[in-house]
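A favour, since you know our structure tokens better than I do. Go ahead and set the record down below.
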Amino acid sequence: MVVGAALLELRFAVERLPRSGGDVLAHGFEVRVGGSAVNVARTLQALACSPLLVLHRGEGPFDRMVGRELARLSLPVEGRRSRRPSGVTVTLVEPSGERSLVSALGAEGSVGVDDLPADVGKACALYVSGYELLASPDLEAAIAALPKGVLVLFDPGPRGAGPGKLQAAWRRADVVRLNEVEAERRTGTKGAAAAAAALERDGVVVSTAQGAYVKLAGAVTSVAGGERVARDTTGAGDAHAASLLAGLTRGMDLLAATALANRVARLQVMGEDVAGALRAE
């Protein structure tokens, strides 16, 4: 089960970010449907999983694009319709592959406990994004109350990674996945390894451009992922989270699932077939 967002992404490839009042000409432009739920679901499908999406649909031309993509994916969807328009994210991708986001929230930002299916406690695993939990405290409480038989992977994102935020989700999650910047923000510590060690719990995975650090039983283990690739990193974090979930539900331990996630995220950045990572297992 994937609890997250579906929205429109406008992606621009730029030589540099504009300064205040500046003007930068993009040398590449793409319009696509993204958001945490859709991105995670795409990767889960590629890894032979069949997720149920829990999200909000909106109204207007952007939502029509969202609807066409969900129909193409042929995935079941739970969640209410909203009279608000679907949201939009503008992504600026620099030559290094780093991306910067400007988002306007829409219908997807209001997923609540009433959107969860009645049998959510029978799910084998659940992914949830911090974006939705911040917008809906009742949803966080419902996730925190799930029985221990449900494997919960929590991806707080940049807004949910701040110190003291979303504490109930941090405590309930079986695995918390962050990137290096988010882990540093959570702990006030510089460097992915140090930040992983400083995080307040075990079962955390801190991803970097070269791999990941996993904290288990108070110790931090580095899991290699290859050299950094100067490509568009948009969606790599969602692919990493989805692959962690796929690996764990297949009986891998957290280190093996992290190694799989590193390979899938790298394939995602390279624009290659991510299903190949699972066939290599």
In short: The mean pLDDT is 90.
